[in-house]
């Protein structure tokens, strides 16, 4: 009698950073001992055709597209806009990482850099370079309005931290949403109202067709004179040249930028040397490998047991 052994198709790991991919492969294999996790570069042609699940971390979408029989994609990042844009409407279902630890870390960063602007740290840095010993006026948080652009899981958590710190918090989203203790806005008129009222604006919106270029010259001109800006969303949400013009003109006091159109930020970028810009290397909310791998492993184990794909993004909305 011939016994036919059924073999499970491998799970593809597609990541742009080779060193990171090795680490992910190790921890995923530990948490998914019954699965075969294979880096994309190590997949044979027949294996690529058999792959049903891909785990991706900032992948090259052209590599993902070579997995022609994918049933679904699990992202190790919260942002999946490039996959959506380049794979198009026929993309397999995409599951983005939804990790409470990611929201906690982002809220922590929002509060930290809001304090940085609120306590006028850029001005003290300028004074230090000139050996100037001068105290600047203290402004109570209750007299400062922080406007959040984006009221998803990250925005909600950030709003709570800012409220607890005593700031007046307002928030905008594309469609109406509610958040306890926060005045909320939506639509074009709502965005205008929030920008006019905010001393510090924090960008947390996902990058979609609607949010690309959301903060342009017209909207920057609507902001309070001397307001601060923090971008922890995606670089293209803000028109870079328009932002530089607003800073040069004195419309804005300072911008904290953690995300850019091109990353790493090219050495030729004016942002590096601009006196009113703080450049961060995309560190506001890094994926926590320990918590993320548990979430991803649970998603895959549940799928293997039930055949039900975890909650996926809306391809039309982009998130």
What topology does this entry show?
Blueprint: E1 11-15, H1 18-31, E2 37-39, H2 45-50, E3 53-57, H3 61-65, E4 72-75, H4 81-87, E5 94-95, H5 100-118, H6 121-129, E6 145-149, H7 153-164, E7 168-173, E8 183-186, H8 187-197, E9 200-203, H9 217-222, E10 227-231, H10 240-248, E11 252-257, E12 277-279, H11 289-306
Parallel strand pairs: 1-2, 1-3, 3-4, 4-5, 6-7, 6-9, 7-8, 9-10, 10-11, 11-12
Helix pairs in contact: 1-11, 5-7
Model description:
It is a single chain. The chain has 319 residues and is of the alpha/beta class. The chain is 36% helix and 16% strand. It has 11 helices and 12 strands. The protein has helices at 18-31, 45-50, 61-65, 81-87, 100-118, 121-129, 153-164, 187-197, 217-222, 240-248, 289-306; strands at 11-15, 37-39, 53-57, 72-75, 94-95, 145-149, 168-173, 183-186, 200-203, 227-231, 252-257, 277-279. Strands 8-7-6-9-10-11-12 form a 7-stranded parallel β-sheet, sandwiched between helices. Strands 2-1-3-4-5 form a 5-stranded parallel β-sheet, covered by helices on one side. Helix 3 links the parallel strand 3 (53-57) and strand 4 (72-75). It starts with 10 loop residues before the first strand and ends in a 13-residue tail after the last helix. The model is unreliable at 1-7 (pLDDT under 50).
């Amino acid at each position: 009698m011939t016994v036919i052994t059924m073999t499970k198709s491998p799970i593809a790991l597609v990541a742009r950073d080779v060193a990171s991919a090795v680490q992910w492969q190790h921890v995923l294999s530990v948490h998914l001992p019954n699965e075969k996790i294979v880096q994309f570069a190590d997949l044979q042609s027949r294996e690529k055709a058999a792959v049903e699940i891909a785990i991706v971390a900032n992948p090259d979408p052209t590599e993902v597209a070579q997995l022609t029989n994918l049933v679904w994609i699990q992202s190790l990042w919260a942002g999946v806009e490039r996959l959506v844009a380049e794979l198009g409407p026929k993309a397999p279902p995409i599951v983005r990482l939804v990790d409470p630890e990611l929201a906690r870390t982002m809220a922590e960063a929002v509060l930290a850099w809001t304090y940085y602007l609120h306590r006028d740290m850029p001005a003290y840095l300028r004074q230090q370079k000139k050996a100037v010993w001068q105290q600047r006026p203290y402004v109570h948080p209750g007299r400062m309005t922080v406007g959040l652009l984006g009221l998803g899981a990250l925005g909600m958590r950030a709003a709570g931290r800012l409220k607890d710190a005593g700031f007046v918090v307002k928030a905008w989203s594309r469609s109406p949403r509610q958040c306890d203790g926060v005045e909320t806005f939506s639509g074009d008129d709502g965005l205008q109202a929030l920008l006019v009222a905010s001393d510090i604006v924090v960008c947390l919106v996902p990058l979609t067709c609607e949010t690309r270029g959301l903060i342009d010259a017209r909207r920057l001109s609507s902001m309070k004179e001397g307001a601060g800006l923090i971008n922890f969303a995606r670089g293209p949400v803000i028109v870079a040249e328009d932002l530089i013009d607003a800073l040069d003109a004195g419309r804005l006091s300072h911008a904290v930028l953690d995300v850019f159109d091109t990353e790493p930020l090219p050495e030729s970028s004016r942002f590096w040397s601009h006196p009113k810009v703080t450049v961060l290397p995309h560190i506001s909310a890094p994926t926590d490998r320990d918590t993320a791998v548990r979430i991803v492993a649970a998603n895959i184990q549940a799928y293997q047991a039930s055949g039900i794909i975890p909650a996926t993004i809306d391809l039309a909305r982009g998130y």
